[in-house]
């Protein structure tokens, strides 16, 4: 029997909205937007699954996360294309190592849906930087030699854009490395294409336990029956599921929205793990609030959520993450955070309009 159109992840990928015309038609966008998008189309990667487009039609806050805006062409103070300085800690095309005991394994630079605040905007959607079997093998060989590494985080782009067969090949390779004790996926698929979590995929991932799916949800409206079903399939295979979110102005920058998100995740069996400040990624200033505001929201959440529902509030400056439960010092120019090594690191304040045209678009 043929699957209903829309019910398979392959259909969702094949029928993504990828052009300014697709977006204009789906979201009723005017001529000004179309002119901007047409002009910038060779430089702004566009993509959204029909499933997530429908959610965006119903929830304008979600539309902001996928709809390019002229503000994206403006480089605000302190913004950069690589805010976590990953390129300085990227020994192989597919590997980023920022910490001694774990490494990121970048499987793919394509995404089902492209987020406008993406920390890896410099890589995603760029066909010239496509990752494939050669880069995966180099990554596996590198991981096999780095005996301090206990955990590998499969990321991208969207790692679940790979077929089951390719994922199996990579997971089998990882399983052969004796010092690797734990596999984590970092994925947005549960939010934007929950159809990707098929019973077959859940069974495949279940063979490689202990394994954590760290999903990326930003809004309670993403927790649809389809997303809940995807979580159920994973949990039924004994796979751990957690979630990370980014604090985004105009999307979820409110205590009530985040409280609903974390509460509902928890009731689905998903542990809210981290709430990240929006990175200093180029062109994302419309999403970014100040660290002080984030602390206030997190403080309010602490008062209304039970302990396991409350994610850590985390900033991610170039040297590695800083949990904001640790010491934060505030000065006129910015903050000093305590990073994961206990070192004080500077962190900018969100400032006024010290903006210039992003050199990528000149
Ligand atoms: S799905 Fe992840 S990698 Fe892809 S654009 Fe969104 S945040 Fe970036």
From TrEMBL:
[4Fe-4S] cluster binds at residues 111, 115, 118. Residues 97-308 form the Radical SAM core domain. InterPro entries: Aldolase_TIM (IPR013785), Lys_aminomutase/Glu_NH3_mut (IPR003739), rSAM (IPR007197), rSAM_sf (IPR058240). Its cofactor is [4Fe-4S] cluster; pyridoxal 5'-phosphate. Keywords: 4Fe-4S, Iron, Iron-sulfur, Isomerase, Metal-binding, Pyridoxal phosphate, S-adenosyl-L-methionine. PROSITE patterns: RADICAL_SAM. GO terms for molecular function: 4 iron, 4 sulfur cluster binding; isomerase activity; metal ion binding. Signal peptide: none annotated. Belongs to the radical SAM superfamily. KamA family. This is Radical SAM core domain-containing protein. It comes from Candidatus Lambdaproteobacteria bacterium RIFOXYD2_FULL_50_16. The lineage of its organism: Bacteria, Pseudomonadati, Pseudomonadota, Candidatus Lambdaproteobacteria.
């Amino acid at each position: 029997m043929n699957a209903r159109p829309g019910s398979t992840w392959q259909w969702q990928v094949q029928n993504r909205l990828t052009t300014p015309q697709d977006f204009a038609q789906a979201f009723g966008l005017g001529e000004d937007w179309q002119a901007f998008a047409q002009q910038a189309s060779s430089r702004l990667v566009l993509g959204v699954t029909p499933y997530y487009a429908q959610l965006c039609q119903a929830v304008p806050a979600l539309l902001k996360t996928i709809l390019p805006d002229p503000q994206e062409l403006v480089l605000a103070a302190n913004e950069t294309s690589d805010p976590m300085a990953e390129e300085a800690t990227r020994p192989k095309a597919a590997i980023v190592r920022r910490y001694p005991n774990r490494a990121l394994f970048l499987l793919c630079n394509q995404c089902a849906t492209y987020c406008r605040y993406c920390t890896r905007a410099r890589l995603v959607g760029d066909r010239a930087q496509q990752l494939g079997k050669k880069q995966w093998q180099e990554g596996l060989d590198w991981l096999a030699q780095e005996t301090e590494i206990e955990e590998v985080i499969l990321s991208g782009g969207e790692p679940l854009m790979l077929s089951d067969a390719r994922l199996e090949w990579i997971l089998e390779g990882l399983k052969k490395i004796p010092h690797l004790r734990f596999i984590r996926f970092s994925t947005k698929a549960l939010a934007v294409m929950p159809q990707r979590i098929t019973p077959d995929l859940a069974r495949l991932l279940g063979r490689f336990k202990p394994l954590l799916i760290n999903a990326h949800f930003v809004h309670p409206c993403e927790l649809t029956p389809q997303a809940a079903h995807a979580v159920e399939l994973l949990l039924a295979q004994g796979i751990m599921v957690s979630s990370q979110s980014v604090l985004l102005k105009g999307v979820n920058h409110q205590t009530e929205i985040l409280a609903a998100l974390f509460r509902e995740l928890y009731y689905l069996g998903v542990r809210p793990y981290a709430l990240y400040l929006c990175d200093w990624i180029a062109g994302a200033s419309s999403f970014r609030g100040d660290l002080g505001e984030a602390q206030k929201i997190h403080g309010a959440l602490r008062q209304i959520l039970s302990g396991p529902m409350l994610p850590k509030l985390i900033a991610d400056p170039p040297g590695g993450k800083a949990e904001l439960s640790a010491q934060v010092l505030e000065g006129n120019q910015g903050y000093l955070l305590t990073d994961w090594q206990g070192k004080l690191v500077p962190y900018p304040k969100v400032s006024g309009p010290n903006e210039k045209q992003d050199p990528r678009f000149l």
